[in-house]
């Protein structure tokens, strides 16, 4: 019997997460798997409203921001991710818990322990089987962004560098789950590394 498989993509803005999410979706669909793609914040109707407040609203206190992300994630897991996994689907999420750790504990400088406890409570300790962290420099990231920058994209280089380093620290601390990929490579070069890694996951996850 097929089992549900949960995969997340992480990284600073402009690294190309959405492109690789699409390629991974097509990969699994070509192998007959049902695939759900989603994102945080904004993977539910409630999440869309929270996303608007967080990314395009006014200033939000750092603790309030962390709680809003956790509220979005709790609803997201309960109504989208866990039901899909229970039906043996592949779930691919553009951002998940690691983004809260990197942006709130890294960028906003709240404590990582508080963010982790909050996120684990919100998700009932649900973690992805695999997380791909796409890594890119500040200069390259700025060149790739289009349109009016959102509240996080406008936070400046120091915030960016703290967040980027936090993602790298997460990967080092959890090397079994996380894979860091140089996002300055071409789309196909990034995808080839992801595909190679996916094919090495436990066979029972891919049957």
UniProtKB/TrEMBL annotation:
InterPro entries linked to this entry: P-loop_NTPase, Thymidylate_kin-like_dom, Thymidylate_kin_CS, Thymidylate_kinase
Q: What is its EC number?
A: 2.7.4.9
Which reactions does this protein catalyse? Answer: dTMP + ATP = dTDP + ADP
Gene Ontology CC annotations of this record: cytosol
**Which keywords are on file for this protein?**
ATP-binding, Kinase, Nucleotide biosynthesis, Nucleotide-binding, Transferase
Domain named Thymidylate kinase-like is located at: 9-194
Q: Which GO terms describe its biological process?
A: dTDP biosynthetic process; dTTP biosynthetic process; dUDP biosynthetic process
Task: Give the EC class as a word.
Answer: transferase
PROSITE patterns from the UniProt entry: THYMIDYLATE_KINASE
Looking up Pfam families in the UniProt record yields: Thymidylate_kin
Q: Does the keyword Transferase apply?
A: yes
Q: Which residues bind ATP?
A: 11-18
Q: What Gene Ontology molecular-function terms does this entry list?
A: ATP binding; dTMP kinase activity
- Give a short account of what the protein does: Phosphorylation of dTMP to form dTDP in both de novo and salvage pathways of dTTP synthesis.
Q: Give the family this protein belongs to, as stated in its UniProt record.
A: Belongs to the thymidylate kinase family.
Matching PANTHER family, A to Z?
Answer: THYMIDYLATE KINASE, UMP-CMP KINASE 2, MITOCHONDRIAL
Q: What is this protein called?
A: Thymidylate kinase
- Annotated source species: Alloscardovia theropitheci
